[in-house]
Amino acid sequence: MRAIKLKVYQQTANYKIPISYEFRESYPLPPFSTVIGMVHYLCNFDSYHPMKVSVQGSHISSVNDLYTRYEFNNGTKYDAKRHQLTAEGMGIGRGIGNVQLLVDVNLVLHVVPENQGEVEFIYDALKNPREFPNLGRREDLAVFESVEIVELGKKLEKNVEFATLANFLGRKNWAAYVPINELDDDSHENMHQTSLQTGTKYRINKVYTLNDLGRDKVVRKWEKYEVLYTNFTFFKHENYLLDSEGDFVFIV
Length: 252
Description:
Mean pLDDT: 87
Largest sheet: 11 strands, mixed
Structural class: alpha+beta
Helix content: 10-25%
Distance between the termini: 14 Å
């Protein structure tokens, strides 16, 4: 099985948590849907191409920043005393909000297309992007430090701690989205007792389908995956998956 491996640097980034409004809080790493969306955009795909992804990385710190926020409701007529903007007679309010920015983000991403015949096409699209890539918000520019095709395989013969391997590779504060089913039984049970020491549990979006509710209303139904955001854990022996450069891969 082959994958496209990207090493990415971002000066700042926000991977918005969907339920955060007043303060746009960020996930610690980009969700699977964000990575898949970037790949599809750079490849000019106009429909979903099934793929799995692995997301790991680090950031140095986070800061709060201001952004311009627009608010409107369908059917609300423009009122000069309440609204700053109008669009076809609809009133729009403009103000400021707060956003969390991750600083000095380093990522290692693996993209595994279901159709392995697409590996070279996706590799070429990411190696020579048609425009400067972004990951997160439109303004969150992403520098592709390297783009490679790697082989994936289960090669380890003994248990290895994820944090130990990350330190061996010279990566500080390194963490990953690890699917819950790749944790061994002891770590999974311990997670509920000392969750702050072992990681944070998330339900991360991957892909969506469109559900027609009638009356011209269509909503997205997301496929979500339970993961542990962690930099210190052990894995089941049979689930060890590494690329040909020695990095763990946690494909979802």
